[in-house]
Amino acid sequence: MTADAGYRVEAADLPRDREAVLGIWHGSLGDPARHAGKFDWFYRRCPFGEPATQLLRHHGVAIGCCTAAPRRMLWQGREIRAGLLADMAVAAQHRTLGPALMLQEALVQAAGERYELLYGFPNRKSLPVVRRLGYAVLGALVRHSKVLRHGPYLERHLPRWLARPLGRLLDAGVALWERPRARRRTGAEWSARADPRMDALWRASTHGAGLVGVRDATMARWRFDESPLASTRYLLVGDHPGGPLRAWFACQSVGAVLRVADYWSETGAAGIDGALVLALVHAARREGYTSISLEHAIADERLAGWRRAGFVPRDSQPVVGKWLGEGGPSPAELAQGWHLTSADEDE
Length: 347
Description:
CATH architecture of the largest domain: 3-Layer(aba) Sandwich
Strand content: 25-35%
Number of domains: 2
Number of strands: 15
Order of helices and strands: EEHHEEEHEHEHHEHEHEEEHEHEHE
CATH class of the largest domain: Alpha Beta
Structural class: alpha+beta
Shape: globular
Radius of gyration: 22 Å
Number of helices: 11
Mean pLDDT: 91
C-alpha cells in the first residue's frame, strides 16, 4: 500500500467494491451500459479465479483502478500462471503520470504473488507508461482481412453502374482462384454454443513451445458463450457433420463483416491449413458477408494458410509482457512461436 499527496493504493474487494469500480469506469471505459454486465461476467464468473484488482484512492475516494485477470496459458509446453492487464482507468482530473504509475506498480507487486507472466495490449498512448514499469514489447497483434464482395468497396472509388458489375467479375475470379486450393474436401456447420469436440481437438493438436492460451471448450464457453458483450457463434469444420473437428472459428458479426475472434485447428500452433481457412471463406460468402477480419499474433512463417486464402495485413497494436521473478525467458523467447488472438484480450 502506497501513500503520496493524498493518494493511496489498496487491493480491491470485488464484491464489496463493485460500485466503486463501476463508478471509476463511467466516463473512462466505453459505453456505461455495458459495464455492469462485464463486471459480473469478467470479474465474478471467471473459471480461472478472481482477477487481482487494485484501487487508487485520493483522500479516501476511489478514483482509479487496474486489473490483472487470470488466464490459462502454455509456454515451453507447460502451463504457466498468466495475468492479463485489463481495465486501467483513472478519473479525468487525476490523469497524470504519477497516479497511473502508482496503480501499475502496486499491481505488479500484487501480481508477483499469483502470476509468472503479466501481458497486455496497451494503446500507443499508454505504451510509454507500461514500458517505464519494465514491460517489453513482445510483438504485435495484427489485423488481417479478406474482401469477399468487391462491389461495396469499389463503390467508394467508382460510379455504382461500373462498380457493381466489376465487383461481380472480381468475385467470380477470386472464387475460381480458390477452387483448386481447397484440395481436400471439408464440411462446415454453424453452432450457437461451444462444442465438446473442441476439447478433443485441443488435446490432439500441436501446442508448440511458444506462448499460447489454452483453447478448450471451458475457455470458449466462458470467453464467448457467457459474455454479455458480443454474440458469438462457431463454424465447426470437419470431414463430415458430427465427426471429429479439424478446426473451429469463433465468429462475430460486425455489420457486414465477419470478425473471427478466435480459432484453433488440428495443426495447432504450427499454423492452419489453407483448405480449412477456405472453408471459413466459403461459409462467410454464403452468409452474405462482404469481408472477414481477424486479429492474431503469430510467427510470419505460420501465416501461410491465411495468406494462401487471400488474407492481407492491415493495422496492428503492440503486445507487451513482463516475466515476474528471476531467470525467466527474454521477450524474444516469449514471442518465438507464439499464438495469440483477440480472445486473449479482455473483450
